[in-house]
Amino acid sequence: MNAEDARAAGVVVGSYGAVGVGLAVAGFAAATWARGQFVAGATGGPVETFGPVFLAAAALSTTRAAMLSAVVLGGVLGSLVGSQYAVPERAGAVTGGGAFVGATLAGLLAVAGVLVGVGGDGATQVYAAGSAVVPLLASAFGAALAAGACGALAAEVVR
Description:
The chain is an all-alpha fold. The chain is built from four helices and no strands.
């Protein structure tokens, strides 16, 4: 990898890192809100039974939304960064590799934000951080495919 490739991959990974911080903050806010709605602010008899289940569902859906957004971001970054290359195969490799690393980073940050946000009373049903690793890596692979394909396409069309 030459200096141009390293800079391009750095843009992709850095962009995912910045978005990952935003996803962590948004995930924390969403999880805290869900905790307040389903556990702390809930009333009625079966709150201790259903509150944790609803909280777990909210945490899972927030995390999954963050993982899916990584794929969309891969397509956008792949197109932008790949358009700077003359060789489609090289553009695909650089953007795809950068997206895999970056999406993994963004996913880890999102998971951390969600888990910190739901922590405490009523979080007994929320997923363990380790159980998110395989779906997170699968999403990062999807992001890499999207970024690599869009990067190669952009290099082919733009240059």
